[in-house]
Amino acid sequence: MSTERVLNFGAGPSALPLSVLEEAQKGLVNFNGTGIGIAEISHRSKEFQAFLDDFEKNIRTQLGVPPTHRILFTQGGGTSQFSAVVLNLLARHRLLHPTATAEETVLDYVVTGSWSKKAAEEARRLAAGNATVRTVVDSRVYSKDGKSFDNIPPHAEFTFSDDPALIYYCENETVDGVEFSHDPQSPASFPFHLLKRDALVPLVADYSSSFMCRPIPHLADHAVIYAGAQKNIGPAGLTILIVRQDCIVDVDAAAKLGVTPVPLILSYKTLADSGSLYNTPSVLPIYMAGLVLQRMKEKGGLPYYEETNRRKAQKLYAIIHEGEQKGVFRRKVQQGSESWMNAVFEVLGEGAEKKFLEGAEKEGMKGLKGHRSVGGVRVSLYNAVTEEEVDKLIAYMTRFLGES
Ligand code: PMP
Question: What is the pTM of this model?
Answer without folding.
Answer: 0.94
